[in-house]
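look at this stuff:

>
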Amino acid sequence: MIDWRVARATGARLGGGGPEVSPQEAADAVAELRAAAARAEGPVREFAQLHAESATAPVLVVDRSGWIDANLETFATMLDPVLKKAMDRKAGPLARRIGGTIGGAEIGAAMGFMSARVLGQFDPFWDGPAGEGGRLLLVAPNIVDVERKLEVDPHDFRLWVCLHEETHRVQFTAVPWMRDHLRSLMEEFLDATEVDSGTLSAAAGELVKIVRGDSDVTIADLFQNETQKRVVAQMTGIMSLLEGHADVVMDGVGPEVIPSVATIRRKFNQKRKGAGPIDKIVRRLMGLEGKMRQYRDGAAFVRAVVDEVGIEGFNAVWAEPAHLPSRDEILAPRTWLDRVAP
């Protein structure tokens, strides 16, 4: 149902190669990002008061194609069993090939769009050959591209990006149950997948509203049944927590180790708001506007809780899955405090 080779080729073609750099500039950027990730680990752990064994999740500095390959590898591992179960056994070989090509092109297009924008990502679902859980990806050409466009100090900017992404690595290595909890939610979501003609028909009208900006839903939202909506609500709370926590840690550590952090934050926030009309439509379709809300709402939740009970009190959130905030609690921190830390 998905031709992963088509997805890979489509993504690489649409993602492009990134900014023009000399071989020496590329090598220097890769080396500095690896060093920055290592340098960020200690301050992040100290500020967050989360303790994890060092280097239990590897750091990879990749280009856009490498980021696409890494994500498609994870997607294939998680989606193939579901796709095989959902496949129409009555479809002939030609229909399956056509469907696989179309599916591959669609997911490849999404990967191509994202590969030109992502600065870094922690992939918690990757299983390493030596038993590592998860891996940190830093997309070198995108980091170089953004630091040039923002006209900020490249050394400071690279460390700033690594502070955020290293926080994710610490979250998952210091909270070992988080990975399995997220995986179980993903599997529950995928197991509940069922798209029929009625769903497709109902989605058509809503799609127009998304493009016009009259709807907050995404393409994915249009095809979710009740089980999936419940799972997505849980995952939204978790992802808001993880992203907001990483932003708070980044801003907390930054002034101590990055001289130009205030300038970087100001210019980066302006960049987040400055997308053109076409880019904004694509962002709405793909749910990236919701991603921006996760950073904002999650950071507000973390700051509110830390102000109330301190970092040690906040860290009760990592004790067990039941302590994770719901989507509603992210927007109302007092309700989480009353439930978990009365």
Observations:
- The two ends are 50 Å apart (CA to CA).
- Residues 226-257 form the longest helix (32 residues).
- DSSP finds 15 helices and three strands in the chain.
- Residues 124 and 179 are 6 Å apart (CA to CA).
